[in-house]
User: Which sequence fits this backbone?
């Protein structure tokens, strides 16, 4: 028996996983999503579901984080580049969605929730067409989305790295078995936290200046609790890998 | 690996990704599977029976992720037991994924339309027979392109993630982008083409979708013709740009050459994100200048 499972070390990882889950919940609140109404230009934001957009962005970040970890092995670089990967995905999706709104549908970008854009101070209410609650992604929502993508990417990468470090007794050669496990569990935790945030958002949110953003503390508490429980399960799965490597029957 | 070869592979990945995004958007438009599906679903209840193909297997990301992962698992399993070339593996995997997708499309079409029988929505068998081959073809193309990207990334860029997992991630990403970018053109413009151009859809018109085509009665085919001119290409560009820009960070600034190079990649990423924000601001201002406000600006102060 040349391995030892350190409870304090695993507990630290559990705290990191919980932190990652909370970051994902915060990020979903910051990304401007309009749900189905935005696809009909009836609401401000990207025209897709909360969970789906957040998952698409977060998984892109996770892909970058995983490849950076494999290439360099540096956890901090992996976290930050994972975050920037998510931010890049969201910025491209929002920019080209805006091109679609402006040139395809022929509407200016306008927020329905704020009468002036919080960042550029542009007048918003007179650019909102009749019977809608705004359309497109104006600058404040765009920047909020980029920040949200960055935070969510860091959260997803944090969970990934924490799970990856859990079977610490494994040699580097067996990384090819551990990385897929860590990725699958990170995807699972990403979806769990994105869905928790969706209940708070209820379909549409414009970003940090939306009234619904004030409901964030409740979601953070719920997310921390759920991620803690799920994190224990995930860590147990990852420890099993180490036990299996050393031939321990559980 | 030589960075020049890496850039070549990235360019190839970008080209294939553009096709994947294009076909993904058209597949969702033919079957009206995405957020605008709510309007197609609502139309019979508002007494507007239609001849559109109505399938919403699930959200686009999950449906595409499922197809991609089925294709990848079949391809990788065949690779283990038989000595086949990579193109054969990709085709075999994509055919399997396409067949599952067609089964799901069929059941969701019959289920969704027959559940609306109380609103006098007919079940058109000719709509089913003409649309299913198109949906199958687009699903095949999307899955094949995702698998090509996965094999290229796995072999040349040495991503180190197993191909089925990579396919799941890319499938979810292409669905998220197709749903976010391409469908707004279908939902806001094509389904409500009778309304005046240059306005969001008034919520009072919900369900009142256009049912007459350029010639005859409109079907999903007419919609895919329309989407292929704007919604599809923009989705393709977006997916290609996402894959190119995120892989480019690790290929040109490979962290394996040292951590300092990796941090340079971070700076490049931040610069790119800032550039998109600047372009977005320019677009916003130009749209406001050219289109003008819907209401006259009141002289009174705004009530916050």
Assistant:
């Amino acid at each position: 028996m040349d391995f030892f499972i350190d409870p304090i070390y695993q507990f630290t990882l559990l705290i990191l996983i919980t932190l990652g889950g909370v970051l994902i919940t915060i990020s979903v609140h910051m990304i401007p999503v309009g749900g189905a109404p935005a696809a009909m230009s009836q609401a401000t934001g990207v025209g897709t579901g909360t969970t789906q957009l957040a998952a698409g962005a977060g998984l892109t970040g996770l892909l970058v984080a995983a490849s950076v970890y494999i290439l360099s092995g540096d956890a901090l670089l992996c976290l930050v580049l994972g975050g920037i990967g998510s931010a890049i995905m969201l910025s491209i999706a929002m920019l080209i969605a805006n091109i679609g709104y402006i040139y395809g549908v022929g509407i200016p970008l306008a927020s329905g929730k704020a009468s002036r854009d919080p960042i550029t101070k542009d007048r918003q209410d007179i650019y909102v067409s009749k019977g809608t609650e705004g359309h497109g992604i104006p600058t404040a929502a765009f920047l909020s989305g980029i920040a949200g993508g960055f935070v969510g990417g860091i959260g997803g990468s944090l969970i990934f790295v924490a799970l990856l470090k859990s079977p610490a007794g494994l040699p580097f050669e067996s990384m090819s078995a551990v990385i897929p496990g860590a990725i699958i569990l990170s995807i699972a935790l990403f979806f769990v936290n994105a869905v928790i945030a969706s209940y708070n958002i209820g379909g549409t949110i414009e970003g940090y200046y939306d009234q619904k953003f004030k409901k964030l503390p409740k979601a953070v508490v719920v997310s921390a609790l759920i991620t803690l429980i799920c994190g224990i399960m995930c860590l147990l799965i990852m420890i099993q890998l180490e036990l299996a490597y050393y031939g321990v029957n559980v | 690996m030589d960075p020049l070869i890496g850039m070549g592979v990235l360019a190839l990945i970008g080209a294939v990704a553009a096709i994947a995004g294009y076909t993904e958007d058209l597949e969702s438009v033919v079957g009206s599977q995405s957020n605008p599906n709510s309007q197609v679903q609502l139309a019979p209840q508002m007494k507007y029976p239609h001849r559109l193909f109505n399938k919403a297997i699930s959200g686009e990301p999950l449906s595409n992720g499922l197809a991609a992962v089925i294709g990848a698992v079949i391809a990788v399993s065949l690779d283990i037991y038989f000595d086949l070339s990579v193109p054969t593996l990709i085709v075999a995997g994509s055919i399997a994924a396409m067949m599952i997708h067609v089964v799901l499309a069929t059941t969701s079409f019959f289920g969704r339309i027959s559940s609306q029988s109380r609103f006098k929505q007919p079940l058109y068998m000719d709509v089913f027979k003409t649309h299913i081959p198109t949906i199958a073809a687009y699903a095949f193309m999307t899955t094949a392109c995702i698998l090509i990207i996965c094999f290229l990334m796995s072999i040349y860029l040495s991503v180190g993630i197993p191909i089925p997992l990579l396919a799941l991630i890319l499938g979810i990403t292409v669905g998220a982008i197709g749903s976010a970018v391409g469908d707004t053109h279908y939902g806001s413009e094509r389904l409500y083409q009778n309304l005046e151009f240059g306005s969001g859809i008034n919520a009072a018109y919900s369900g009142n979708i256009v049912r007459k085509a350029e010639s005859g009665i409109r079907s999903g085919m007419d919609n895919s013709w329309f989407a292929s001119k704007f919604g599809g290409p923009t989705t393709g560009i977006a997916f290609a740009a996402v894959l190119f820009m995120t892989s480019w960070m690790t290929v040109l600034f490979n962290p394996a050459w040292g951590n300092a190079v990796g941090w340079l990649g971070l700076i490049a990423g931040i610069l790119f994100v800032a550039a998109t924000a600047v372009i977005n601001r320019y677009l916003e201002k130009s749209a406001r200048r050219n289109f003008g406000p819907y209401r006259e600006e009141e002289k009174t102060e705004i009530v916050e």
Notes: Chain B touches chain A through 91 residues (CB under 8 Å). The first helix of chain B runs from residue 3 to 30.
